[in-house]
Amino acid sequence: MADAKRVERPLSPHLTIYRPQLTSMSSILTRVTGNALIVSALMIVWWLLAAATGPEYFEVVNGFATSFIGDVIFGFSLLGIWYHYLAGLRHLIFDAGRGLEIETAEKLGWACIIGSVVLTVLTIIII
Length: 127
Fold this sequence. Notes:
Blueprint: H1 22-53, H2 55-65, H3 68-95, H4 102-126
Helix pairs in contact: 1-2, 1-3, 3-4
């Protein structure tokens, strides 16, 4: 049987000393926005079901959806939609084998973040 000698190996970097990179944060943000969009989709389904149920219940749900809290939720949902869309385009660029250099990947990450904020503001202004 082989000698069970313990080998000293370096430990993985701990979260307290690890510097998060833009590319990893944007990947995490893509997953977060995707899951958050499920919540806003459920709110839209709730609103549609309330419209099909009757006018009294629809007034309750519509009152919540058009309140300040509803506006904030749908505003962040709009931001999530734009970010998720731009991150998907970024992912398609990566799948084509382009933009994989560190500088280009970071520029594309900033483009997703800044672009989603600009497109959200423009959408709110237009609508």
